[in-house]
Amino acid sequence: MSTPEPTPAPEDQAQQAEAQVEHVDVLVVGAGLSGIGAAAQVLSRVPGTSVAVLEGRSASGGTWDLFRYPGIRSDSDMFTFGYRWRPWPSDTALADGGLILDYVRTVAREYDVERRIRYDHWVSAASWSSDERRWTVTYEHEGREQQITCSMLWGASGYYDYDQGHAPEFPGVEEFGGQVVHPQFWPEDLDYSGKKVVVIGSGATAITLVPAMAGTAEHVTMLQRSPSYVLTRPGTDPVAAKLSRLPAKLKQPVVRWKNILEAVVSYQLFQRKPEWGKKLIRDQTVKQLPDGFDVDTHFRPAYNPWDQRLCFVPDGDLFRSIRKGEASVVTDTIETFTEKGIRLSSGEELEADVVVTATGLKLKAFGGIRFSVDGAEVKMHETMAYKSLMLSGIPNFVYTIGYTNASWTLKADLVADFAVRVLEEMRERGASMFVVDKDPTVGERPFMDFQSGYVVRALDQLPRQGDRAPWMLKQNYLTDLRTIRHDKIDDGVLVFR
Question: Which of 119-133, 160-174, 286-300, 469-483 has the lowest mean pLDDT?
Fold first, then answer.
């Protein structure tokens, strides 16, 4: 009779369990709009695939949970910002952050994603082994460094740095007797009622904050170094309202495609006829501002429309605040903060009790993860983007980054379609690896042809794009719809092994 093996001591059992690294088929990094959508599509369309989602924060929702400043909302219409496969359920075109967060979390529950999200898991590194055909992903949880392996790694953490925003150093800020806040870290107890507020900035965050704070504050001043293009769009989609009696399965596609085509056509027109676009925007702006308002100083940028993202305001709320005298715009540069406010280069001093530095975001490419392939560190600026969803030389990796000239989710949905098709192709072939290799004959261009400050500041940290397909980012949904969703997966560039 054989002698039974002795039962390991409790401490030995713990060590053995720790040595067994968990493996999943698909590992998604990020539980925001992109990550939840990614996991939902894999789970619903590729049955039997094991999926886990690692989220660095203690809550889902990404941007829509992190940002808590007054008035936070989408600046894209919700019929294209919502998922194609789970339509936005309301006629509201530009929804506030709370509604968007509820929508994203509802989708997570409906598609059984919520129970697969692991919170407070900060991913720091990912190492690919061609011999093992898998990624080893290192993360920190509860103060300990741990690992998990996966066959496909999906970066869905967006490109914002959640730890810090862009915060220029302002001279004399330590002399200021009031409160300085950054929108990314809005204090829950901030009381600005009856106070003078200065919002520094002219982008989407600033033009959202100003009308949201106006009326409660004594006065809100938007202080900008240079203006942005600001356009009004209805808070409720008029076509959706007219079709309200139709069943959702008939109404939603019509409204969605109306908004897609509007965005594509307007972008192309503004790019091809910038002077016409400038005049159109200026004429609309003049109609919404008081007589004699200096439109050309405060609402006429030096760049062409869509060289930077256009700012949309629901029902002209920013212009209405200006007309009512609750808000004003000052275009100047800051000389220094003073005890009572801000002194400008012109010599004017703006009194303030609260200063909001809506000075922009900071990019963190792919969540700041350190990548390596077969022991060699990956230098992102040496890689080239393929269809703006994979990177050359990095196997079994896809990432989600949305459009800059249209709704983020239009591209996120296409990336999900692509990833699902790749998983299906791998099953059919019995393959365990897919990769794209950089073509030395393809010319290089910046990763994003976009002049917004947060992009320009980070270009040297980002991959490159090419000068022709499939390495070029078209920023055109209709083109991507064909090349990503419908063209053959096996295109001679993407290789399965």
Answer: 160-174
User: Which residues neighbour 247 within 8 Å (Cβ) at sequence distance 6 or greater?
Assistant: none
Parallel/antiparallel/unpaired status of strands 219-224 and 327-331: parallel
C-alpha closest to that of 162 among 359, 364, 360: 364
Task: Return the SS3 of 331.
Answer: strand
Contacts of 164 (CB under 8 A, 6+ apart): 184, 362
259 closest CA partner among 41, 91, 452, 73: 91
User: Matching CATH topology for 17-162+363-496 and 173-357?
Assistant: yes
What are the structure tokens assigned to 484, written together? 């990503």
Classify domain 17-162+363-496 at the CATH superfamily level: FAD/NAD(P)-binding domain (3.50.50.60)
Global pTM value: 0.90
Sign of CA dihedral 458, 407, 209, 33: negative
Q: What's the confidence (pLDDT) of residue 225?
A: 93
> Buried b vs exposed e over 79-96: b needs ≥16 C-beta within 10 Å?
bbbbbbebbbeebbbbbb
Q: Give the number of other Cβ atoms within 10 Å of residue 415's Cβ.
A: 26
